[in-house]
Design brief:
Elements: E1 4-6, H1 8-19, E2 37-39, E3 47-53, E4 56-63, E5 66-73, E6 79-87, E7 93-95, E8 105-110, E9 118-128
Antiparallel strand pairs: 1-2, 3-4, 4-5, 5-8, 6-7, 6-9
Length: 129
Amino acid sequence: MRKTTILTSTVAVLATLALGTGPAGAAPTGAAGTRAGDVAAATPGCTTFRFWRGEGRTEGEICDGHATGWVRDDKADGRCPFTRFYSLWDDQTVDGPQVGPKGAVRYFTVYPPRGQVFARYASIEWRSC
């Protein structure tokens, strides 16, 4: 399977085209420091994500109206990484669980707000912990 590294904004455009929903807006802002991840089609209608930054890493899949995956803390720095998901039709975000200390891994299943679906992109962020 060939994986292509692309920017989060490109993923948003591809999701819009795949869903046939028309313009879904620009890529989310506030994801400063987020590196582009590998995104590849998984099951038809699903999208895998893989993101990393100095604080940690997250991998998973957005499929069937929810997201599943894991997040890992890679650095003993007082920062706990978490995965952020974006609603397709508005500016709402849903955060997955944060993880820490260094070496800790947490598996998750995250659902969008009622009546919403996740856009096919995510980001890795951090909070002080």
